[in-house]
Amino acid sequence: MPVYNKLVRDKIPQVIEKAGKTFTTRTLSDEEYRQELRKKAFEELEEYVRAEDDAAAIEELADLLEIIHALAECHSATIEQIEAVRASKAEKRGGFKEKIFLIEVHDE
Q1: Mean pLDDT score of the chain, rounded to an integer?
Q2: Following CA atoms 33, 35, 38, 44 in sequence, which dihedral angle do they give, to the nearest 10 degrees?
Q3: What is the dihedral of CA 51, 57, 63, 65, to 10 degrees?
């Protein structure tokens, strides 16, 4: 019997049930939920880093985006508010489109 002890998507219990299996779950407290979302973000990021092609990378990016949506809600923010902060930072400091790799800064 595999033990997972991890946050899963809302419909995973239904998927398990349809497969004819039984399972055990519990509902997390708000603090536990936030902690588990953070763990899940690292898990999904690792899966993205290990993706071997564009299709797999896109799947993992979609999972990361789902986690970002959930985390935004945990912090009482909307994805639109997060996007506004991102846009503001991009306006002030730029994005990453120019592929600039900083080697060093010389003190003069």
Answers
A1: 96
A2: -70
A3: 140
CB contact burial 79-88 (16+ within 10 A = b; e otherwise): eeeeeeeeee
Written as one string, the DSSP assignment of 13-29 is: HHHHHHTT------PPP
Q: Cα 45–50–55 angle (5° rounding)?
A: 90
Residue 83: inside a domain: no
Residue 44: the pLDDT is 97
Q: Which of 29, 30, 25 is nearest to 6 (CA)?
A: 25
Model confidence band, residue 99 (pLDDT cutoffs 50, 70, 90): very high
Does some domain include residue 93? Answer: no
Cα–Cα distance for residue pair 79/85, rounded to 1 Å? 10
pTM of the prediction? 0.88
Is residue 86, in this structure, part of any structural domain at all?
A: no
Q: Which amino acid is at 101?
A: F
Helix (H) or strand (E) holding 5: none
